[in-house]
């Protein structure tokens, strides 16, 4: 069966859920091979096997972690040259897309980013679905030259375990001096919140300008915690300094596609919708009955979030018997 | 220092954007166009650096004849000169071809005096792939520093700070470099009356593919390495139940969540 390369998305060996989604998609297209770049392979190993990786290529050279995307693109180009895979799948994160972009040029291969689904077309080649123009259109596309390089958004597939015993191969690559031009000189990890990662969460509760202040975001956090969800924010709330930019949902923030998205004190501007329109169920709380967010909500409460949300949180806790 | 800012002319995001039925490319005529708002942040960052260090700032766009408006706006904001690459053959180009044309134009701009810094927006508001800056770095062999929330230059070193997935990173490189900036980086200035008047006298060059030595068959829809098979308007979401809070809105909300099995 044709080999499909899946570039593992991980933080020092902690495999992100998106990788298990990619492996699930790759099994539809051929035989998945995981490409693990960086430190921490021992920790990643079991997950890759559990989701059906037939092979794992392990690239552990330190240069691959200390610089940005350029060395990774060089490494993948060398691997592709040797293996001639039928497709390369990466996570549609900023980094994943940049690696993919550089790889596409090196390999003279077509690139599709931000796929929300990938299937096998009539000719056996992958056909992707993308959501464009702030989610107003879906587009089917395929690569017409070289090896399809596809970046896939989180939540594009439900991860399905499929136990395999991957063959491991350590790979050494040559990294050019040019690829080491940009160096990470400082990295300050963000404080962990204990909540699910925003792009992976199945429930997201977001607050906007209507929240009113940084302190008031505890109302959003309390509801998110009662539901076991992640917290998001509109750009207005981020620009006001009430919540960190890492949690912004929308065109210039994260794209989320959870089962449930609750927007509180958010009007529903097109740039915000771009980041959440594909959510399964949308709930809005807004004191303005004319707010555009209500046009897309499955359920809405016209009211003050400062009373509606705490009451909802309390009711959830009561139902949970706490 | 010589800075070139890549600016794109895009269909207005707040209008009803769609496709050309004939060739499934982005419809750039039925919807009003404008300079991509995200590229204004790149212009602002370039102008701020120029004010601090002294630099010549050129705005570069690749796009149809209307795209001249994007260059004009950059000049009104304060850029010194403009370049517009326009050619019928470019219609339908993907990011790979666009980056090729941009890279060739940057090389031509660098003939007289090398380009130290190429500045881009974080994404075009229409295509939004966020890949052109990385592709430019790849093609030019420049250092890549993308998604900057702040940019500094000291001597021949450029340093950015950015919000990565799990950490805040500081990244450093020797010039020349490609830097893309986010909408967190700054508040773009509005063109002043003086700026608008001054822009009229600033030099704008118009180049064709031939001027860049790019073969027309290397760009455009026919040369794209991927193609749109079909597109569909997403059915508008059905408007659901909207209740007005009468003191029990929170409870109503939870009843809905429970029906949907979220609680
Ligand atoms: C290039 C570009 C990119 C952008 N990217 C993003 C992005 O990534 N994400 C994003 O979110 N925005 C983005 N924006 C900004 C976007 O256009 C809107 O300005 C922004 O989304 C508005 O945020 P908001 O809904 O919180 O604020 P507003 O539009 O001000 O809405 C606040 C809402 O809160 C309601 N409200 C007020 N008080 C209460 C209360 N007590 N209880 C209940 N409701 C209340 C009001 O009725 C109102 O509907 C971008 C804009 C541009 C130009
Ligand atoms: N046709 C173009 N002309 C000039 N600059 C462009 C063009 N396309 C993309 N860019 C630049 O590349 C950035 C990212 O674009 P994209 O990869 O399309 O999301 C934009 O913000 C611009 O700075």
Please supply descriptive tags for the structure shown above.
heterodimer, A: 322 residues, alpha/beta, five-stranded parallel sheet, 9 helices, 28% strand, elongated, B: 263 residues, seven-stranded parallel sheet, three-stranded antiparallel sheet, 29% strand, binds flavin-adenine dinucleotide, binds adenosine monophosphate
Please sum up the structure shown.
Chain A is of the alpha/beta class and 322 residues long. Helix content of chain A is 28%, strand content 28%. In chain A, strand 15, helix 8 and strand 16 form a beta-alpha-beta unit.
Written description of the protein model:
The complex is a heterodimer of chains A (322) and B (263). With 322 residues, chain A is α/β, with parallel strands linked by helices. Chain A has nine helices and 17 strands. A nine-stranded mixed beta sheet of chain A has the order 9-8-7-10-6-1-4-5-11, sandwiched between helices. With 263 residues, chain B is an alpha/beta fold. In chain B, the strands form three sheets. Chain B has a seven-stranded parallel beta sheet, with helices on both faces. A three-stranded antiparallel beta sheet of chain B has the order 8-9-10. The N and C termini of chain B lie far apart (59 Å). The interface between A and B is large, with 93 and 85 residues. The complex binds flavin-adenine dinucleotide and adenosine monophosphate.
């Amino acid at each position: 069966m044709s080999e499909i390369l899946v570039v593992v998305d991980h933080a020092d060996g902690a495999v992100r859920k998106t990788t298990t989604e990619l492996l699930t998609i790759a099994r539809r297209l051929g035989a998945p091979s995981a490409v693990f770049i960086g430190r921490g392979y021992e920790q990643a190993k079991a997950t890759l096997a559990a989701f059906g990786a037939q092979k794992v290529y392990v690239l552990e050279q330190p240069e691959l972690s200390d610089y940005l995307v350029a060395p990774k693109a060089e490494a993948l180009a060398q691997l592709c040259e040797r293996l001639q895979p039928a497709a390369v799948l990466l996570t549609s994160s900023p980094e994943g897309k940049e690696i993919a972009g550089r790889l596409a040029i090196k390999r003279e291969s077509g690139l599709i980013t931000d796929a929300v689904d990938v299937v096998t077309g009539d000719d056996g080649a992958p056909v992707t679905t993308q959501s464009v123009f702030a989610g107003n259109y879906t587009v089917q596309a395929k690569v017409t030259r070289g090896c399809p390089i596809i970046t896939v958004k989180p939540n594009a597939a439900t991860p399905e375990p499929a136990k395999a015993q991957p063959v491991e191969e350590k790979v050494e690559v040559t990294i050019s001096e040019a690829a080491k031009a940009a160096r990470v000189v400082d990295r300050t990890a963000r404080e962990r919140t204990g909540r699910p990662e925003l792009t992976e969460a199945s429930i997201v509760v977001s607050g906007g300008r209507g929240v009113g202040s940084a302190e008031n975001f505890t109302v959003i956090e309390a509801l998110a915690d009662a539901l076991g969800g992640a917290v998001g924010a509109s750009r207005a709330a981020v620009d006001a300094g009430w919540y960190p930019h890492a949690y912004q949902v929308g065109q210039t923030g994260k794209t989320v596609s959870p089962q449930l998205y609750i927007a509180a004190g958010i009007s529903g501007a097109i740039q915000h919708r771009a980041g959440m329109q594909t959510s399964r169920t949308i709930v809005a709380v807004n004191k303005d009955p004319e707010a555009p967010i209500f046009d897309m909500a499955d359920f809405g409460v016209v009211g003050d979030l400062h009373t509606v949300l705490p009451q909802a949180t309390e009711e959830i806790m009561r139902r949970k018997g706490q | 220092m010589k800075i070139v800012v890549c600016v794109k002319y895009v269909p207005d995001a707040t209008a009803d954007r769609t496709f050309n039925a004939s060739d499934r490319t982005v419809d750039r005529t039925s919807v009003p166009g404008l300079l991509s708002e995200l590229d204004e942040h790149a212009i602002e960052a370039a102008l701020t650096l120029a004010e601090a260090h002294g630099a010549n700032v050129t705005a570069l766009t690749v796009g149809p004849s209307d795209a001249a408006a994007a260059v004009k706006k950059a000049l009104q904001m304060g850029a010194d000169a403009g370049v517009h690459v326009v050619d019928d053959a470019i219609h339908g180009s993907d990011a790979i071809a666009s980056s090729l044309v941009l890279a060739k134009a940057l090389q031509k701009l660098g003939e007289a005096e090398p380009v130290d810094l190429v500045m881009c927006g974080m994404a075009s508001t229409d295509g939004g792939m966020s890949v052109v800056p990385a592709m430019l770095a790849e093609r030019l062999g420049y250092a890549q520093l993308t998604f900057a929330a702040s940019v500094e230059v000291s001597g021949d070193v450029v340093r950015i700070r950015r919000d990565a997935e799990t950490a805040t990173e500081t990244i450093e490189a020797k010039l020349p470099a490609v830097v893309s900036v986010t909408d967190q980086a700054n508040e773009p200035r509005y063109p002043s009356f003086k700026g608008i008047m001054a822009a009229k006298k600033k030099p704008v060059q118009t180049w064709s593919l031939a001027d860049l030595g790019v073969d027309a068959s290397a760009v455009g829809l026919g040369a794209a390495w991927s193609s749109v098979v079909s597109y569909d308007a997403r059915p508008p979401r059905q408007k659901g139940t909207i209740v007005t809070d009468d003191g029990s809105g929170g409870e109503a909300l939870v009843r809905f969540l429970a029906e949907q099995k979220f609680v």
